[in-house]
Known about the structure:
Elements: H1 4-16, E1 20-25, E2 28-34, E3 37-43, H2 49-58, E4 64-70, H3 79-91, E5 95-99
Parallel strand pairs: 3-4, 4-5
Antiparallel strand pairs: 1-2, 2-3
Amino acid sequence: xxxxxxxxxxxxxxxxxxxxxxxxxxxxxxxxxxxxxxxxxxxxxxxxxxxxxxxxxxxxxxxxxxxxxxxxxxxxxxxxxxxxxxxxxxxxxxxxxxxxx
Length: 101
C-alpha cells in the first residue's frame, strides 16, 4: 500500500463535508479549505513518532490537522493500544482518520 492509495477516500470525505481540496502543496499531503478554516491532512501508511512530529509541525500553519492512516486489520483485537494512541492524539489536538480500503 502507498500513501497515494489513501488520497481518494480522504478527498471524497472532505469534499462531502463541503471542503475545497488541494493536494501536494509545499510538502503538505492534503489541504482542505472551507470558509476561513484551513485543515491539513497527512497521509501515512504507518502510525509512528515521525508522523506525530510532522503533524505537530503542521499545527503552526493550520487550524486543524488530521493524520489519515489505513484502518488496522487488527483494530478490534488490539483496541486498547489504539485507544491509547487516540488519547495521545487528542491531547496533542490532532485528529485521526482511519481509511478503509
